[in-house]
């Protein structure tokens, strides 16, 4: 059985930098980089690519919830923002 090689790519932006989205449905929006997922070459950007996550209750008597969180976006879809 062959093992898949995991290629860790170096991101062209750093955590805390301002980026602009250059493609996709969020095109033209600006946000700060919160987290870098190196193995998948993706970024989590503050306030961009918001999605809904349904969370089931884990214990009896506890309520489930619906959270809005930022989902990752591919690093090739962002560019460093110059003011």
Automatic annotation (TrEMBL):
SUPFAM superfamilies according to UniProt: Translation proteins SH3-like domain
Where is this chain primarily localised? plastid
Presence of the UniProt keyword Ribosomal protein in the record:
yes
Q: Give the family from UniProt.
A: Belongs to the universal ribosomal protein uL24 family.
Species: Petalonia binghamiae
Print the keywords alphabetically: Chloroplast, Plastid, Ribonucleoprotein, Ribosomal protein
Q: Where in the cell is it found?
A: Plastid, Chloroplast
This protein's GO CC annotations: chloroplast; ribonucleoprotein complex; ribosome
List the protein's name.
Large ribosomal subunit protein uL24c
What binding partners and quaternary form does the record give? Part of the 50S ribosomal subunit.
Q: Where are the transmembrane segments?
A: none
Query: Where in this chain does the record put each KOW domain?
Result: 12-39
Q: What does this protein do?
A: One of two assembly initiator proteins, it binds directly to the 5'-end of the 23S rRNA, where it nucleates assembly of the 50S subunit.
Could you mention a single GO BP entry for this protein? translation
Q: Name one GO molecular function term.
A: RNA binding
**InterPro entries membership:** KOW, Rib_uL2_dom2, Ribosomal_uL24, Ribosomal_uL24_C, Ribosomal_uL24_KOW, Translation_prot_SH3-like_sf
Name the HAMAP family for this protein.
Ribosomal_uL24_B
């Amino acid at each position: 059985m062959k093992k898949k090689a995991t290629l860790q790519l170096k991101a062209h932006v750093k955590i805390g930098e301002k980026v602009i989205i250059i493609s996709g449905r969020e095109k033209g929006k600006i946000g700060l980089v919160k987290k870098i997922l190196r193995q998948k070459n993706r970024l989590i950007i503050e306030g961009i690519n918001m999605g809904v996550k349904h969370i089931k209750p884990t214990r009896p008597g506890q309520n489930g919830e619906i959270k809005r969180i930022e989902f990752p976006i591919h690093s090739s879809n962002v560019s460093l923002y110059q003011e």
